[in-house]
């Protein structure tokens, strides 16, 4: 007997297949609108997080900006910038050596980290908890750098907020053309892990891309390509990084609160939009997925962020964002957009189950109310957005 998940995977393909003509198959995919979901129908947890997410985008120069309403007029203002020492050095190096510039022939992805500061360490090293302290004291060396650092402060635009509680700070500047240069938040991949099948994240992506009907499951993600000959193996010139203040996120007492999640989500959505990351279901990662010796930010955080990204796209009227997040799951128009949305959420759940200790799986799936999300996507989405 076919289960609901398999039914959703096949529904769009079977309906379109009955038409029989490729022209009508493409036409149907283009005409069909993306479904939407009202925020009020979400579980309270997600309503709370989304209520705290500021609208953000990048300027042409590559500076993160936030929508600010002043005297009843909305404008985009630059977020605070506190440039790391590493970034200052490598911007100069990149002027004369293209190997230090971000890729232009491969897609760009996203990587999450935790900063690693325990409450005790933070109290000593960053006594005021400001954005300036976290960059100037935390990223002060020449060997570590990342594009963004977020905390649980209230986001504010302008350089004055550097001396307020850490919320969102840009710690690397792009080059004169607005393009990133090499960062230093993930070491080059060890291809031996892939060759001896230790890279179980890559194996999980292969199996799931195959099972969900993608045409090239062996090369379907940035992570897989980084590990294979012929590709660069250098995450620091292909993944934009976000450091999340804190540590030990897999423990419930240390898991990020609403505002910290909202800040991380706001920056993530802006990066996804700027770099056309499609889909973040398989081209956004945690540090631990690329370096098996690391444990940050926690598989639960990766799952939670991907759920939040999917929900954010679903409640948005931004059709481009929906295309980026859900579009690949239409398999080129073979599957309906409603089914593609459903498959996005099933995919990230299946990936979490395949890569996580079974003893931890159910707790966090229940925490994120994944069954409620599946039910909403199955019954409450509509094509009005």
What is the structure about, briefly put?
The protein has 385 residues and is α/β, with parallel strands linked by helices. 44% of the residues lie in helices and 10% in strands. It is built from 17 helices and 8 strands.
List the helices and strands and how they pair.
Blueprint: H1 4-17, H2 22-31, H3 44-51, E1 56-58, E2 64-70, E3 73-78, H4 85-96, E4 109-114, H5 119-125, H6 131-136, E5 148-150, E6 168-170, H7 191-195, H8 200-211, H9 222-226, E7 239-244, H10 258-275, H11 280-283, E8 284-286, H12 287-290, H13 299-315, H14 319-326, H15 337-355, H16 358-367, H17 370-379
Your description of this structure?
It is a single chain. The protein has 385 residues and is an alpha/beta fold. It has one domain. Helices cover 44% and strands 10% of the residues. It contains 17 helices and eight strands. It has helices at residues 4-17, 22-31, 44-51, 85-96, 119-125, 131-136, 191-195, 200-211, 222-226, 258-275, 280-283, 287-290, 299-315, 319-326, 337-355, 358-367, 370-379, and strands spanning 56-58, 64-70, 73-78, 109-114, 148-150, 168-170, 239-244, 284-286. The strands form two sheets. The protein has a five-stranded mixed sheet with strand order 6-5-7-4-8. A three-stranded antiparallel sheet has the order 1-2-3. The longest helix is centred in the C-terminal third of the chain and has 19 residues, at 337-355. The protein starts with a helix and ends in a 6-residue tail after the last helix.
Task: Name the descriptors.
single chain, alpha/beta, five-stranded mixed β-sheet, three-stranded antiparallel β-sheet, 44% helix, 10% strand, globular
């Amino acid at each position: 007997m076919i289960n609901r998940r398999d039914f959703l995977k096949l529904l769009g393909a079977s309906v379109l297949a009955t038409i029989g003509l490729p022209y009508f198959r493409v036409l149907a995919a283009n005409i069909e609108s993306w479904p939407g979901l009202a925020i009020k129908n979400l579980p309270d947890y997600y309503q709370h997080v989304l209520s705290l997410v500021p609208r953000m985008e990048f300027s042409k120069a590559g500076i993160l900006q936030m929508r600010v309403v002043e005297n009843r007029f909305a404008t985009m203002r630059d977020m605070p910038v506190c440039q790391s020492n590493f970034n200052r050095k490598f911007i100069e190096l990149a002027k004369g050596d293209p190997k230090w510039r971000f890729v232009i022939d491969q897609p760009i992805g996203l990587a999450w980290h935790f900063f690693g500061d325990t409450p005790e360490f933070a109290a000593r090293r960053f006594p005021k908890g400001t954005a300036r302290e976290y960059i100037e004291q935390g990223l002060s060396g020449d060997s570590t750098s990342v594009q963004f650092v977020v905390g649980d402060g209230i986001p504010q635009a302008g350089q004055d907020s550097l001396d307020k509680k850490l919320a969102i700070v840009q710690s690397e500047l792009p080059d004169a053309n607005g393009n990133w240069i090499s960062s230093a938040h993930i070491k080059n991949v060890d291809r031996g892990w892939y060759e001896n099948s230790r890279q179980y994240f890559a194996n999980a992506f292969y199996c799931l891309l195959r099972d969900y009907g993608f045409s090239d499951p062996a090369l379907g993600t940035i992570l897989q390509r980084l590990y294979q000959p012929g590709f660069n193996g250098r995450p620091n010139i292909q993944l934009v990084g976000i450091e999340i203040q804190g540590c030990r996120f897999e423990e419930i007492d240390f898991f990020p609160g609403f505002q910290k999640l909202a800040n991380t989500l706001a920056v993530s959505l802006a990066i996804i939009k700027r770099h056309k990351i499609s889909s973040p279901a398989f081209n956004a990662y945690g540090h631990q997925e690329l370096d098996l010796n690391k444990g940050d930010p926690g598989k639960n955080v990766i799952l939670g962020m991907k759920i939040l990204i999917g929900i954010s796209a679903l409640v948005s009227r931004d059709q481009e964002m929906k295309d980026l997040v859900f579009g690949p799951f239409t398999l080129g128009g073979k599957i309906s957009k409603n089914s593609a949305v459903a498959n996005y959420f099933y995919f990230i759940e299946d990936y979490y189950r395949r890569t996580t200790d079974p003893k931890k799986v159910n707790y966090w799936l229940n925490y994120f109310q994944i069954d409620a999300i599946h039910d909403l996507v199955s019954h409450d989405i509509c094509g009005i957005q």
